[in-house]
């Protein structure tokens, strides 16, 4: 479950970067998803899971 959450978080960060750097308007929802992705990555780093 944790590995799947990490993969989803990475995908969300990539989608955010593409939309941010590409100039596409995605609305505010992409920023909320980015926060969720960052929290998931931080939880994985703090727990020390490899």
UniProtKB/TrEMBL annotation:
Pfam families referenced in this protein's UniProt entry, alphabetically: DUF5670 (PF18919)
Q: Which InterPro entries match?
A: Lmo0937-like
Bilayer-spanning residue ranges: 5-22, 28-46
In terms of superkingdom, the source organism counts as: Bacteria
* Keyword terms of this UniProt record: Membrane, Transmembrane, Transmembrane helix
Listed name of the protein: Lmo0937 family membrane protein
Origin species: Pedobacter xixiisoli
């Amino acid at each position: 479950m944790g590995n799947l959450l990490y993969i989803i978080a990475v995908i969300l960060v990539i989608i955010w970067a593409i939309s941010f750097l590409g100039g596409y308007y995605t609305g505010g929802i992409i920023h909320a998803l980015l926060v969720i992705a960052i929290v998931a990555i931080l939880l994985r780093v703090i727990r020390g899971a490899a």
